Amino acid sequence: MVRGMTTAPASKARISKAVIPAAGLGTRFLPATKATPKEMLPVVDKPAIQYVVEEAVAAGLSDVLMVTGRNKRPLEDHFDRNYELEEVLRHKGDEKKLSKVQESSDLATMHYVRQGDPRGLGHAVLAAAPHVGDQPFAVLLGDDLIDPRDPLLMRMTQVQEELGGSVIALMEVEPEQIHLYGCAEAAPTEEGDVVKVSGLVEKPDTEEAPSNLAIIGRYVLDPAVFDVLSKTEPGRGNEIQLTDALQTLAENPSLGGPVHGVVFRGRRYDTGDRGDYLRAIVRLACEREDLGPEFRDWLRDFVGKEL
Question: Which ranges form a coiled coil (predicted)?
């Protein structure tokens, strides 16, 4: 049990479903994303979306719903079987590559739903309601890759199962960066990495931000969020903001339990813009046992000569 957390009734429902919104156009990566979904851009030798699904599975969430849009068929193909390719590799006796090809199709039970007219993250989450039903569920955004050595999502599901309500992932950022994120107003608890959230603001001006706790792309949500989202008016950017719905739940715990935050201090790789995407690839490649030693030697030599 989470120590020092007795302010809300425990939820006994076992979380098994993950929702991954993947309907965005990826305009920051044009022209690469003109015909290729941004979620399929490679991070070393796997598409970014596979890291996200692997994280969900590692946390015990074996049922994955991907909320997609137009031109996202490659996502479905990646997590489906490719019998022709598998047969070619089997015929060549290349078991290593065959295993890698089959890995993505064996990861989880995958489902897909179209968001239709994209109207924000809250709208994408609402599209998952028929699949999720009345059980708590997780939402994972593809721009944030969490290192598997730092099991954030597993910690969040633990907190949710003990306390009920919803749990969001938070990370401390420099105050001048908070305008890039949703921001939480929160009070500490006896558990060092858990805070009680009382308010949320989407991308506040620096001088108006209630803290430097930024919301990153992991949520474990009570199904009450669907009813709240269905009544949430478009907010910032004329989109239905998940942050606004969570603000309602934080202010009115009777609607669906409290909102807590897990403050993450581990390794996070941001693939949301070009510079961070490149840095994520370099960091992950450096840490790979099969690539790291040689790549690090080359990188040292390259940096030494170029800088």
Answer: none
Residues 6 or more apart whose CB falls under 8 angstroms from that of 239 comprise: 119, 120, 121, 122, 123
Cβ-contact 296, 286 below 8 angstroms = yes
- The answer for residues whose C-beta is within 8 angstroms of residue 102's C-beta and 6 or more apart is 81, 86
User: Quick check: 239 and 121 in contact, CB under 8 A?
Assistant: yes
Three-state DSSP class for residue 72: coil
Q: How far apart are CA 121 and CA 202, in angstroms?
A: 12
DSSP 206: G
**Mean predicted confidence (pLDDT) in 251-275:** 90
Separation of alpha carbons 289 and 274, rounded Å: 25
User: What residue ranges of the chain are covered by domains with CATH 3.90.550.10?
Assistant: 17-270
What local confidence, expressed as pLDDT, does residue 156 receive? Answer: 96
Dist CA 257 CA 249 (whole Å): 7
* pTM: predicted TM-score of the whole model, two decimal places: 0.89
Check whether 146 has a pLDDT greater than 60.
yes
